[in-house]
Hints:
Blueprint: H1 2-23, H2 42-62, E1 67-71, E2 80-87, E3 90-106, E4 113-128, E5 133-138
Antiparallel strand pairs: 1-3, 2-3, 3-4, 4-5
Amino acid sequence: MSEARTRRRLLSSVALAVVAGLTGCSTDRQSDTAPNETSLTDSTAKERALAAEAEYLRSELSGASCLHNWGTSATAVRKNATVTNRTADGVRVAVVHPYWSTESWTEPASNRSHKTHTDGGSHAHYLVTPATVERVDGDSLAPC
Length: 144
């Protein structure tokens, strides 16, 4: 009887040790996002910031009466977005977005026509949350 009791105690001790050892191993994997309320991945935040900057450029360039033509495709500058910080407020993203424009005008004295083509890139910072994209600061365009 004493041998059976010793065997039970030994098995109970081993079982407790195994359970105690496994308890510390059952943690969740951490995601690549910071422990805040933004559940945005870096790539999603960057895509949304670039799309917002493209819309900003379209809005500014389409309202410029002096421009003959314009676009937001890459010419001399490439699109780029970098996550610079994650805060409780959201994901901060720095963007560079290409644009180009052609301005046409006629010289009054000689009645000569002129065209000027411009290639450039806008620089801006955005605060991206799951619900909003806010342009915090950046280049202002004044083509005319």
